[in-house]
Amino acid sequence: MVNPMIILAMFLLAAFATALIDKLSRMLAIGTMYVVFALAAGLGAWQLYFLQSMPDAQTMVYSAGFPAPLSIALRFGVVEAFLITLMNLFGLLGGVYLFKRFKEHGAGAIALYLAMLLGANGLVLTRDIFNSFVFMEILSISSYALIGLKQTKNSLIAGIKYMLAGGLASALFLIGVIFVYRFTGTLNIDTWIAMGNIPSAAYLVALFMVAIGVFIELKPFPANGWALDLYQSADSGLAAIIASVQTGAMLFLFYKLLPLFIPEMLNIFAGAGLVSFVFANLIALRQKDAKRLLAYSSTAQSGLLVFVIAALYLLKLPDTIILVIALGLFFTNFFAKAGLFWLAGIVKQDNLSAWGVLKKDSGLLIIFGVFVIGLMGFPPFPAFFAKWHLVHIFTATKAWIWLAGLLLGSLLEVGYLMRWLGFAVKQEHPGELSKSFSKMLAPMISAIFLTTASFFLIKLYPGLGAFNVYPLMALLLFGLVDYAPAKLKGAIAIGVLSYWAWFMLLPSLPLMGQVFAVILVGGSIAQLFAFMRYNGAAEGFFPFLTMLVFSFGSLITASTTMELFIAWELMTLASYMLILRGKKAKDAALLYIVFSTFGAYLLLFGLSLMPSTYPGYPLILQAGFLSIGWVAALFATGGFLIKMGALGVHYWLPSAYAEADDETTSILSSVLSKAGVFGLLLILMMISSYVKSNSLSMIALGWLGVFTAFIGALMAARQEDAKLLLAYSSMSQLGYIVVGLSLMSHLGWVSALYMAVNHLFFKALIFMAMASVFLRTGTRNMYEMGGLIKKMPIAFISVLMGIIAVSGVPPLSGFGSKWFIYTSLLEQGRYLQAGLVFFSSAIAFLYLYKLIHTVFLGQAKPNQSHVKEAPIWLIIPQGIFIMAIMAISMFPNLITKPLSQAVGNYIAKPDWLSWDGYNIVLNSPALHGNWNGNLVMYVTMGVFIIPLLWLLLVNAKTQKVKQFNIVFAAERPYKPETTHYAYNMFAHYFKALGFWVEPRATAFYQGVSEWTHSISATLARIYTGNGQTYILHIFLYMITLYLLLGVR
Amino acid sequence: MSITLKLIWAFISLGVVTVWGLTLNGIVQKIFARVQGRLGPPVWQPFIDIIKNNAKRTAITHGIMFYLGPVFRIAGGIGTYMFIPVIFGSVYFSNFSMSGDVLLVMYFIFFGQLGMALGAGEGGHPYSAVAVSRGLAQMTAFEVPFALSVISLVAQYGTLNITEIIAAQQGGFLQWTLFTNPLAVIAAMISMLGMNMYNPFSVVIAPQEIPIGPPTEYHSSFLGMLATNRGIFAGAKLILFMNLFFGGATNLFSLMLKTFWIYMFSVFVGAAYPRFRTEDSIRFFLKYPTAIGIISILLFTL
Fold first, then answer.
1. Which of A48, A722, B23, B97 is geometrically suited to a Cys-Cys bond with A81, CB 3.0 to 4.6 A?
2. Predicted complex ipTM exceeds 0.90
3. A931–B164: do the CB atoms touch at under 8 Å?
4. What is the pLDDT of residues A298-318, one digit of tens each?
């Protein structure tokens, strides 16, 4: 084993020798420093390796060979070794980053930097409380001095504030230590712990002072004004080290002291940490300055860690679990936060919106993305697993307030981090990056290290199948070849995905899973052709598209709740990235990810309440046997409904659909929303043992679906932007699926699935056709188009087929949807819901006609005379979907029978539902009915063709007239702008029914946002920038905590 | 019955309804004229118009969709008719009603309307689009009470099958839905006023302005086809109402009698009332008839 004294000695020696070596050569001095860091990290790693081979080895080392009370004890166990390795690695990276500063300032700076790391290393190793004080001081004093090196007014002031606060904290700590010594007679932490609690109020006060001394150094809100100013004005390189190494060392000290604390104290610190996490994140929401934002974020994260270790300790969990969770969070945070500070030094722009300069280097942009997404706790980063387990622990122990705080804080965090990412990806900025090898190295290695570690984590995580890794592998591999032409990448993607879907995915699934595989994976693959229309590389599509499709696969095959959630999060992430790619999608994408994350947290909570499943068997197979409680079902349903855009939580949907790239929107609408359907169905299966069609909850869900359909349709009829129209139309159609699912009957589920398949076909068809139109006309406003039938006949035919299918007019498959939904509703006696469904489906005619008329019919605009048919790549998916619609319209059994069979595995097919050839016969006691889609098709063809032949016979020689050749008040109108009846087409309708579509959801969510920002701004006002005020804050904070402690 | 025979009978039945529908239209024109103090055209004027229009030699077209518009329209009319059993108990006059139930009929009605709207749209005449927008808006509203009344029938009879609904009304006129479920019938009959587009719901075809649009663009054999459909479609709708609410018909005579009087209801109201604006008719349909429809459902469920 390694004697940890060597590490400390090494630092000390190097720090003193620096002055001499610097005289010889500055480069040599810097080099020596780097070597020391490398050696220290190496020793840590060596110790880790050693302990792994000899787990029972003695890890305690005593200075000068005496036992504890006489000497200072150091411990070099697994955790210490891990931290020593990590911190010195960071010391090295940070040192490389600060290379220029060292070169400029020489021995002084180098020695201070070494001293700082010495303090951190010592703090981790020591088991002696007074010794801890010494290392704390070494760490702090060297930090003040280093901050002073950047000789700006702000940084000097910040250094002073830090000194004041740090001095106060140290003083409290020291006084506390003295008093505790008075009671215990020793300074050794382990001996303290062994002595247990001393029943004396004075002892508790002393202990509290020790604790608060450390806690203040961890920058809790609101006693952290000094830290915020420090982070903001210090050199980025230094801030990175303070945020990671210094905080890490202090946290570990806090952790060491935990066994001393009485439960009330743990409770107070857990609460204070949580408050810090939530409120610092809340205030961060409003920050425009990147480093100030990072400052808030750092304090929030250290609050989170204090909260986590104190809370878990209070819950009496084993040390290993506490450490694994805390290290999971810490590890991610360590790399990501330091990395972001480093990037801040490269970007050199204070304003968040100026971070668009990162686009100038796509490598840096990716690194930035890795840090931000890691920090938010998305899979596969360790923080994800930590949060997953935290939620499960809090649920199991019914710690609801902690759970709520954790999720609320995390949601706020997602808000500002994603806003930042949005700026970096979308905002154009003319500035320059301050790039140099020394500066680039640290963030680059951090990102690579973090990603690699996360990748292995998810690969090796117990109980996770191989399918969970595919999305990430796809992201990585397609990311690496993203410079290749889009057509090549598209062909490869289609080939790989088809192979995987056919040979690996489908065989592993039960019939119901296969249905969803066809919808989600098959539906996506068919639309991938459209992305091949791009000339050149079209960067940013294929990595995320393939990731999305693979994550669909892992969603369907998920066999545990964790696999399900990982797939869900990866899917959300991929779709977010795809939305963000849209030209003006910054705000829309943010809205999407915030709503999605909110939904994901609801889902996470719901999942945490679920019983364990059988790994290896898809959930969709197990769902029939599993049973979950209604609370779990309620929350999970909430999560899935958000993804489906149900009424009330649909606020994200229109803008995300509208602003994403046109092909992406098609996938979002036709495919992604069905992932929500999958989830909802899964949940309903798991409650089917005790929830029936006539349960109040299902009737309520039914009404939610019906009103989603109704309001969605009304909103659609009001839009002038074709994509918004289609977005609301999707929302409306998804409402029908919700109604069908809510019936909890064989027929109801068949109706929902039939609708899901059908919606995929017709919505993808319409979106693809409209994508062609947008591509050629360059506008989405329908009233700016007109008469395109002559220029783009294929797009017209697609839209025509699509709208017939949407509206439910026979003989196309849409009527099947309508027939199933009405019969299933009526069969269950849901008469009024059926009535409102009918109204909604009638309203669909309004927007569908508006769509096809204003775009393709009426008067053509002169400026669109150049418009021609779309490239073949957009036509291929249309062809596929037209054929699909025709096939299931002509031969409905192709789809109705398999769906009935799939549903039959969960809810048995009733005897009264039968197939007589193509005739579906319903003979239930409550309802008789039938539908023969095949015969309807023949009759329709007959009644269409005979009049057509007649017309061709009597009216063969028609004369085709040119545009404007109409009889119009005895004039010929030459201005299509005034002749084309398009804008606000249903004004009369909304005069009568407009009150239904007043933007209530918009008002509500804008109110929420407004209030959040106002509270955030109000809170931020406590930070006056005055050092004395900050000291007052610390005092008041300390007194408040003490009073809350309630020690008598 | 063999498919050939079925087809032949379907043709015969189509012929019957066309003649009867056109005759009814002629009678209605005459009645309106008399109410307005005019002499009016002869009852057989619709037939003359159709023959004349089909014989015209010149015709213009605005494009393929325009050309297909009337085809869609008449296909919608014939198709709707084909899915309705005409005479209860008669294998010869049952058309292709085994293809589906009343839902199929309700949705097939849209087939012709949608196709015609598209065809007229390609004509490029603003009045066509104006009329369509009014028509669609009004349609969404009047379909609500109608749908509610059909749902009420389901609650009452437990079937969507039209033949079964007629069967349930056999055994004397007191068995008709009119007497067993009067609220549903009231809702449906009010809704029918909207379907037939006479006053007060005539803003769709607004005789003073809209005719400059579609009927002028659609001339010659196009117009002939549309006029023919007017007969077929009117007949189909009347027979549907007769089947659902007035006990169906067991012979042609009873069919003619019942459909005549059902039609006269819209005609009398139409002749007596002034016209609503679009938004007014939407509000109207969604208020009283909808409430009546809901009550009729609730009466059968509670």
1. A48
2. yes
3. no
4. 999 999 999 999 999 999 999
